[in-house]
Amino acid sequence: MSLLKKIKDKKVNFEFNKEYIKVLVSKIISNDAQFITNSFKEIHPADAADIIEHLSEDNREKLIKLNNFQIDPQVFIELNESVQSEIIKYLSSDAIVSILKNLESDDAIKILENVDEQNKNTILSSLPPKDRFVLLESLSYPEDSAARIMQREFTAIPNNWSVGQTIDYLRENRDLPEEFLEIFIVDNEFKPVGTVSSSKVLRTQREKKMESIMSKSQLLIPVDMDKEEVGNLFENYNLNSACVIDKNNKLVGMITSDDVLTVLKEEAEEDVLRLAGVGNEEITDGIFKKTKRRFNWLLLNLFTAVIASIVIGFFQEDIEKVVALAVLMPIVASMGGNAGMQTLAVTIRTIATNELTKNNFNENILKEFSIGVLNGIIFAAISAIVVQIWFNDPILSLIISISMVLNMIVAGLFGILVPVSLKKMKIDPAIASSVFVTTITDVIGFLSFLGIGAYFFL
Amino acid sequence: MSLLKKIKDKKVNFEFNKEYIKVLVSKIISNDAQFITNSFKEIHPADAADIIEHLSEDNREKLIKLNNFQIDPQVFIELNESVQSEIIKYLSSDAIVSILKNLESDDAIKILENVDEQNKNTILSSLPPKDRFVLLESLSYPEDSAARIMQREFTAIPNNWSVGQTIDYLRENRDLPEEFLEIFIVDNEFKPVGTVSSSKVLRTQREKKMESIMSKSQLLIPVDMDKEEVGNLFENYNLNSACVIDKNNKLVGMITSDDVLTVLKEEAEEDVLRLAGVGNEEITDGIFKKTKRRFNWLLLNLFTAVIASIVIGFFQEDIEKVVALAVLMPIVASMGGNAGMQTLAVTIRTIATNELTKNNFNENILKEFSIGVLNGIIFAAISAIVVQIWFNDPILSLIISISMVLNMIVAGLFGILVPVSLKKMKIDPAIASSVFVTTITDVIGFLSFLGIGAYFFL
What we know:
The structure is a homodimer of 458-residue chains.
Chain A lengths: L2 H6 L1 H20 L3 H9 L3 H9 L3 H9 L7 H4 L4 H8 L4 H9 L3 H8 L4 H10 L2 H11 L6 H4 L6 E3 L4 H10 L9 E5 L5 E6 H5 L7 H4 L6 E3 L4 H11 L3 E5 L5 E6 H19 L11 H27 L2 H6 L2 H29 L5 H34 L2 H31 L4 H29 L1
Parallel strand pairs in A: 1-2, 4-5
Antiparallel strand pairs in A: 2-3, 5-6
């Protein structure tokens, strides 16, 4: 089935998968590795990976352990990390080595990252010295650095060549990457001085100098730059590819926008999941894995919920006297929690995209404070009216309005201060902020409402 | 200052902006449009846009209204939408027309989307017929479709050409796009049959046929495909560019991965912000705009908080008798809310990336149910122990455990059912799900805890 048909008719795609998976499972059971290998060749590696991800863990293990079945390296790198680490356990070091040999350096690194320390050394020592050296060097950089997503295969030429010389070199040299969007021009010390897009070379007369058509305003990415930062640069400057330089400003690699697509998507996705306390959960993870991943967050939340309960506990006597306090107390806490999460979500995205800087930090704190005051006053008025109609008690209305203004201001301020402080302490703000913010708004919500209530009623 | 220096030394970047903005403001006041125009020419359009975004609304208005100042089209398209619509108000139709003429069709469309209906017609009628036709056709497709992000400038050749013929055509024809990653090969009816990357053309002998080096397994994007879907395809199949076809399968445009980068980033960002109820807020928005954007969500939340309070209100007598019920009641509701948000965040991302299909839907419902039961039992046990230690009351411990299991299961089920149902009703699940889910977990949390409490204590 052609990719085109699948895309144009989603239903075909679903049925195709379901039927196909059934056939595949029967072939796994009947030990027909040949059929599976052949049918994987007919579809895009990303689709084959998708199908393997949707097998049960059990069938996946059987498939990988089939005699005569070798997973295609291009399929392997398309699997999500969770399934990759699962499969790696069943693969021999030899099988992993042969996968690595067939991949470009950026893909090979992604796989090695999921292998445990001991096996990593065995595998590295089985690789040809050149490949080993390249991978070891990449591994020496931090996990989230540009070094890990760049490929070391690129096309560079000296700065005195003509277009004709370049084209002849490209035609004759077989040791170049399969495809490249840009040709890098380097000086005698291998420092990049400019780039020329492949299409520009195509459109220029042979006798012209490459230097005369190159674009100088290139973006040089230091090899240790954070990959999320690289993603922001690509997005900000609409890049298709960029060169990576080492500490001595020498050209060492190339990053293309398809690598960056994955980075940007993963990072933004992480923010959604981390804000909700799930971590890097995959849809294909099993029940126990999922339960375990979510457990810590819920435990932390239980702890903060108990703290909120302890605060309420201080006011047991007041609640016994005026039970309406118990009925209304969740309102202020919940409004604060929501206002806090609004500020938090905006702050976390602006931190991630480098829009929140030292320059505009104070201005933004002031903004959030003002928004807190404004929304606080508006919702103090609305909730006072609701409470007045419901309980017909002006004092109760007054209590809820005062604590509402207070908690909305607290929500705005901590919604911005908590993630910024965590970021300063080198903790990912998306992971931990929401627990802090909701704990603060819960505690202040209950404390202010019940405290002011106790003051007026006792 | 070179871009390189800015990237390698973030501090320089910040100081640079702050100092530069001061200078710029003084030049705006002294009416020195020439200085501003010249200095913008020295930096990347994306940086110039960044600086304009960080001016106060007031100064921005003055800048745009300066005599002899014309904003560079390349700078204009780099502005965020919020600032674009603000500036468009100050521009004459003529100024907008001259910006549009200088942009590629995908960028021109983005600007037209922000112009009000009446002005749009004036502007369109001032454009050259060819440009007008192209833009009108793009506007006839839905706002989130591939048509809006594709460019109509691309390079296509007949399927019987040789590499040499292609290169000569590219060298001679001045009416081609500035840059292209791939050359599309079309048949007599202008239907795409294959693509050849520019680098592959460069590396092949002149006499070879283009058809012999083209890759057939191309992805054809229907012009009305949702742009988020396009983003997923690019990410999934690691594409750098792809061709867009109309209803008759004819080639009409090209999408490149730098356009898709922006789409993917925006979509993932929207999910974070929408889950928190903020919509498309920009850091540069003013206080009143931000307050207004957040108001509806908070109002909705006030409504749901009042519903939860009404539920508590049913049990006033019970709370008066056993005040510990009031102290503990937020725990179950809050745990349910958090467990629900976990499931919700995972579900929304899997819906967005097309990983949740009819095929695995039932399986995932069952998974969430099982996770709810597992986590419910675990946290029932933990909270029972906490309550037992705190209040030394086995009945209270029993009440909290039963309602905990119940609410965790409800949280898991509605965390997946709510977004899927909203999606079916064509409502963006990221926007409305969390209100529904937390209302349900609040109501069930209070109702089950207080209800079971009333049963045991009365």
